[in-house]
Design a protein that fits this description.
41% of the residues lie in helices and 16% in strands. By secondary structure, the protein is α/β, with parallel strands linked by helices. The protein has 2 domains: 14-43 and 149-318, 3-Layer(aba) Sandwich (Rossmann fold); 45-148, 3-Layer(aba) Sandwich (Rossmann fold), CATH 3.40.50. The strands form 2 sheets. Strands 1-2-10-7-8-9 form a 6-stranded mixed beta sheet, with helices on both faces. α2 (45-58) crosses α6 and α3 runs parallel beside α4.
Length: 319
């Protein structure tokens, strides 16, 4: 029995996107609403935290420690899970303290997390320093991996495939934002375990194609061991498109702006500037290039992140 808590609002709905589909003149588009998982504005990390927090409880931890960018959705959801289940929480954020606290960072503070600032090159060293210091003070820290992306966290998306298949909706493709690899590793493992016959395509937010393929293949294999038998995944088994991340992590380009506005103005559906906005921009470009057949059904798996729309750095861009 794999330890799991049940606090996400599941199953998340699958909705048609008829006006967006018509505007693009391509395949039939659907959306899986993992922005509605229910934990402090929701998002994909909530599924992972059901398993990670259960593991922390089983180990007797009293403190959750994790790291991310200044506007990290993962850190916001980790802080919320910590508050809900009675853990202290320390977040190691990359960057400098802003003059004004907004969006995810505002929520981190509201949820009671302690914030430690660091440079990107020092992130792992700072995590270890924070963990060691907490242990020396008598805490029992549990280190939540970056993005929730380890074999425990990836379980959330293996079981998400089982959930999706039980909803009985046809989709020839699943398309989503991929970065730390846990969501994609879980999905490709779930595909193998539960028999999804379509294709799973990760749009890279920040990593080169080969890096993400190797990371996802390795993590999917490691996660499979939790089901009792190691399954083999090769990098070539993993579908990744990294054509849309050359601007850099969190850099809002005209492509993301167009995608965010088009989803909002055709379907009333909000995306975020970093992850779903970039994945949607890639999806739009692929549709326009004829990558998908017009008779195919494409499911856009919405991984959340909308609080970042309210970050000071993006407000002038989206206004």
């Amino acid at each position: 029995m794999i330890p799991r808590l049940h606090f996400a609002h599941l199953p998340t709905p699958i909705e048609p996107l008829p006006r967006l589909s018509a505007a693009l003149g391509g395949p039939t588009l659907l959306v899986k609403r993992d922005d509605q998982t229910g934990l402090a504005f929701g998002g994909n990390k909530t599924r992972k935290l059901e398993f990670l927090v259960a593991e922390a409880q089983a180990q007797g931890a009293d403190l959750l420690i994790t790291a991310g960018a200044l506007q990290s959705n993962h850190c916001r959801q980790t802080a919320a899970a910590a508050a809900r289940f009675g853990f202290a929480c320390t977040l190691v954020l990359v960057g400098e303290p802003p003059a004004r606290v907004s969006a995810n960072l505002l929520l981190d503070r509201l949820l009671g997390a302690q914030i430690v600032w660091t440079e990107k090159a020092q992130r792992e060293a700072m995590l270890e320093h924070v963990r060691a210091e907490a242990a020396a003070q008598g805490h029992k820290p549990y280190l939540v991996p970056y993005g929730g992306s380890n074999p425990t966290g990836a379980l959330g998306y293996a079981f998400a495939v089982e959930e999706f298949l039980a909803q009985g909706v046809r989709a020839d493709w699943i398309v989503f934002a991929s970065s730390s690899g846990g969501t994609q590793a879980g999905l490709v493992l779930g595909q193998r375990l539960f028999g999804y016959a379509g294709k799973i395509l990760g749009i890279s937010v920040d990593e080169p194609q080969t890096v993400l393929q190797e990371r996802v293949a390795r993590l999917a294999g490691e996660t499979s061991e939790k089901f009792g038998q190691r399954l083999s995944f090769e990098p070539d088994d993993i579908l990744v498109n990294a054509d849309y991340c050359t601007a850099g992590y969190g850099v809002l380009t005209e492509a993301e702006k167009e995608a965010i506005r088009l989803f909002a103005q055709t379907e009333g559906l909000l995306l975020d500037p970093v992850y779903t906005g970039r994945a949607a921009a890639g999806l739009l470009d692929l549709i326009r290039k004829g990558f998908f057949g017009k008779d195919e059904v494409v499911l856009f798996w919405h991984t959340g992140g909308q609080p970042a729309l309210f970050a000071d750095r993006y407000q002038p861009e989206m206004a």
